[in-house]
Amino acid sequence: MTMFDTTTPAAPVVPSHGRLRPLGLDEVRITGGFWGERQAVNASGTLPHIESRLESEGWLPNFDLAAAGTLPAGRRGREFADSEIYKFLEALAWEIGRTDAAGDSELEQRFRRVVDRVAAAQEPDGYLSTMFGREGQGERWSALQWGHELYCLGHLFQAAVARVRTRPDADDGLIDVARRAADLVCREFGADGRDAICGHAEVEVGLAELGRALGEQRYIDQAALFVDRHGRGTLGEIEFGREYFQDDVSVRDAEALRGHAVRANYLSSAAADVATELADESLLDALRSQWDRTVERRTYVTGGQGSHHQDEAFGDDWELPPDRAYSETCAGIGSIMFSWRLLLATGEAQYADLIERTLFNVVATSPGDDGRSFFYANTLHQRTPGVPADPDATSPRASSSLRAPWFEVSCCPPNVARTFASLAAYVATADDDGVQLHQYAPSSVRTTLPDGRVVAFDVETGYPADGDVRITIAADAEFTLSLRVPSWASGAAVRVHSGGEVTESDAPAGAVAVTRVFRGGDTVELSLPIVARATAPHPMVDAVRGSVVIERGPEVLALESIDFGADVGEAVVAGEPVERDGRVVIPLRRRSSGETVDASLIAYHDWARRGPSTMRVWIPMN
Amino acid sequence: MTMFDTTTPAAPVVPSHGRLRPLGLDEVRITGGFWGERQAVNASGTLPHIESRLESEGWLPNFDLAAAGTLPAGRRGREFADSEIYKFLEALAWEIGRTDAAGDSELEQRFRRVVDRVAAAQEPDGYLSTMFGREGQGERWSALQWGHELYCLGHLFQAAVARVRTRPDADDGLIDVARRAADLVCREFGADGRDAICGHAEVEVGLAELGRALGEQRYIDQAALFVDRHGRGTLGEIEFGREYFQDDVSVRDAEALRGHAVRANYLSSAAADVATELADESLLDALRSQWDRTVERRTYVTGGQGSHHQDEAFGDDWELPPDRAYSETCAGIGSIMFSWRLLLATGEAQYADLIERTLFNVVATSPGDDGRSFFYANTLHQRTPGVPADPDATSPRASSSLRAPWFEVSCCPPNVARTFASLAAYVATADDDGVQLHQYAPSSVRTTLPDGRVVAFDVETGYPADGDVRITIAADAEFTLSLRVPSWASGAAVRVHSGGEVTESDAPAGAVAVTRVFRGGDTVELSLPIVARATAPHPMVDAVRGSVVIERGPEVLALESIDFGADVGEAVVAGEPVERDGRVVIPLRRRSSGETVDASLIAYHDWARRGPSTMRVWIPMN
């Protein structure tokens, strides 16, 4: 294990040790391509859209009412509305870091204006909530089951982490706000305090990272306390069962992620942080084993998690119906958070594989082209054409059948925003010997190894449209460049042009390492075979037996009725998928007429961008 | 169409005209067998259990508080708790009729004691609710979307119908209570009154039948008004969409049942009543067409309806996942109510077929052996062993994985009780020419045709264990005996022994009619081939593609882990089902080990009676 300087990288997760060291937004920049476009739309579309909605929905003005002492009159939004402001602040902080915005930039000014309003609402002892603690409201900490009081603070802490990691010297005051709130949480819920947890995990992961960022072991210990208190039934019974908030068995004893899929992933992420910081190998092993079973048995082919609409929860093992797959966008983001921590701890490529699958097929699916509408849930089979959402309206949670501009429970839009703004942090890592490239995007990487060697290279690629990744070294250095080879990429190869020599080798799934005394201008070319392939389901997954899904590289493909000329319920596979004019085409029989047609498939993340349609990912073989 | 005397038959549904005339509990008696046993347990177990729970949960005492003028303090239960008392009264009334209990019997005294407490809570103008209308409560009719105020009154009306049909001269006062409440509803919601409906259909079907029972056309007209007001959005928007309470499109324009499955069936039942009473053929045609599509595309092989836990609702066409099939017991009962009305109107055997399927596989599945625990939802695939319910506890709605004694929403137990107590009414009907036997059970039938001919016969059968049904004529008369031949019974035959002659003929699916001058002692023997058969799913039902269900006669069979020696997720069909020693045995391969074992299948309604297990109805072919 390598010990790191924990304060440096401008990244969301910076463990004090682990197999891999994260790189910050100042070390890795995405310069274009699939993700670069999404980052641009996130900046131009999503962030202003969220800010406008937080204002017009009254969720940000709630803080003004708190400061004015007039709450609860006029408070708007659900019990967790505060958290959306914090996620927005986190997204802005990463965006400032990503674009290296100046102190007098418009971004900075927007950030500071929101921080001022939040800070004004904080009470002298550090308490901060627009929902509790005043006359006419519930008492502080009186509604831990559903109140989301600590959950909101967890997001405040993550916002502060983003700020301190990107602008450590900023004088806006957010860090102090977070510190005062975290101190209060430690006083109230410490070992001698209330023996209680929040019904929605999040404060744990926020506290752990704030502790890392500020060098406050107390916060990490408090996170560990909260993690350990799960599974003792202190939250009481609810209709969905105690597994809903992971209060049924301890984090150590659980066999798989279960219950509410966002809660489960946030808690698992925090548990991974705690396991790392406390060097608790048995906890880490338990989490890895839970991840294995969850990915094998409780995860959709898209990477989506959560089979149930009713409780937004994981189903039983193998219960993965494509109809009404819930696959909440936020659960996908939570899964990335959890996998990322295990990747940093272990260096194993499987975690980066799932992150890629989830990024392309869940997170990229959510936002509309202009970044101003979103899927909350991500079904794998739409049986009736979706109904366009009113662009001025607020949709109930997951009921919109096409992307909607905002939700009563609007966790997903700011969650997407903070993920896209910080996405470069998930592209590459470093260790003592070199750099590991986990995700392929046009990008530039500049970092310094512990012994002072400077690693600098640029990545060019059309990924995932094509699988050629060309890395050009920008500075002389001896180091190991490790390239992830996705599990689907059988037949991959790597070619190194170095000092006039060309070396070729196979690149089996996992990772391929190239160690060289690299010279500026050397190139490493990874060729990933990106062709359409038919994937059969695991035989234990009853709901898609006798069907196949067509995948292409990291992308799951989908059939949309608009490309089939009939409802997708009519489709039966009648041959192999082929690539034709840059499209994947598959012969499909129409069940009623018996007629066979060649239909184009689209990337799943591109569905419902051309108006109402029916859509399916799994296509029957008969 | 025959015009009937609408006041006579002691039956839940007595249309003024139609293809078939219902027979009352005094005309048809179930004398033993499968359903006779369940009626006995209903009387000895379920009715006392319900009464005790209504008392201990405080739902019946709510009426005492109302009478004492102390509400809302101390009121217990959900907004629809009153309705359970009315369903219990309805069940008791049918039980009194079924057993011909004397006026001084214990059953009668129990009935009257409850009626007294209900009557004492009624307000002078006829209003009756423990939930609304007092200081500290919501105003009358102020919460139609979720308040269930009119819904409760609908059940009051059905209780009164049961009473007036079984004890028309009783002086307990329930009829007057119902009449005063119905008059109030007509004043408040008549053509010149509030243009509104209740969020849960039921008042419509209650009003229509009360109108029939009391000869009050006003009540039928009010039912018609409520039916017609559906689909105009007066209930407003909710997260589940307006189809949840069938307020999305008009009853006439709908293409299938949709939304909440109990609401949908209750409304459709009322619409069928209205169509019949107002001779509205186009409405009847619309309902028949909706029934067709619902049964083809939105109904489980068990007859169960409702695919979603979240909103207890129908899914889209072909969306029938066996995992977490909701298939609420009450939706099955509602489906029987709807089908029965269409059967009376048209005489078509398909409606009786669905009733039989639903009775054996949904309604019979709900109660435990002692009639004191119940399934609320009826999944077709249990992936993890159920957890036994605490016999003293009250379970959240459908979350119990084994039968539970009571629920916070406890609609199902009293719904089962009223259905079993009145079950004989669904066995046979009459027309001008004779009697139609729709359901096979040991029973005796005694009725008089319009022209005075007395039809009397007794039915002996071991159905559904075997398919031999022997009808022995008890009185000389010329009439037509029509016997339903279920759609699955290919190869059925009928043999008539009459006046020393024996006549045999094939009995194709639908119905076989035997017209004779019958003499006492003549017999008609129907042989239904009851053998295990493998049924493939409709190819459009994705969730069970590549699987089969084994059926035997009207019963759907299930595989329980206890008979397989392994989790049912491991099972793959490896041969044909055979009957051996009175059991259906099927060779099954265990997926992990490859080993093949002969496993007994049980009737689905018998599952979870031997402790926790996993269970599935659809078994994969590979």
Secondary-structure map:
The structure is a homodimer of 622-residue chains.
Chain A: E1 2-3, E2 17-18, E3 21-22, E4 28-30, H1 33-56, H2 61-68, H3 81-99, H4 106-120, H5 149-166, H6 174-189, H7 203-214, H8 217-229, H9 261-277, H10 281-297, H11 329-346, H12 349-363, E5 381-382, H13 412-421, E6 428-430, E7 434-437, E8 443-448, E9 454-461, E10 468-473, E11 477-485, E12 493-498, E13 501-506, E14 510-518, E15 523-527, E16 532-535, E17 547-552, E18 555-560, H14 561-564, E19 571-573, E20 578-580, E21 583-590, E22 596-603, E23 615-616, E24 618-620
Parallel strand pairs in A: 7-11
Antiparallel strand pairs in A: 1-2, 3-6, 4-8, 5-23, 6-7, 8-9, 9-10, 10-15, 11-14, 12-13, 12-15, 16-17, 17-18, 17-24, 18-22, 18-23, 19-21, 20-21, 21-22
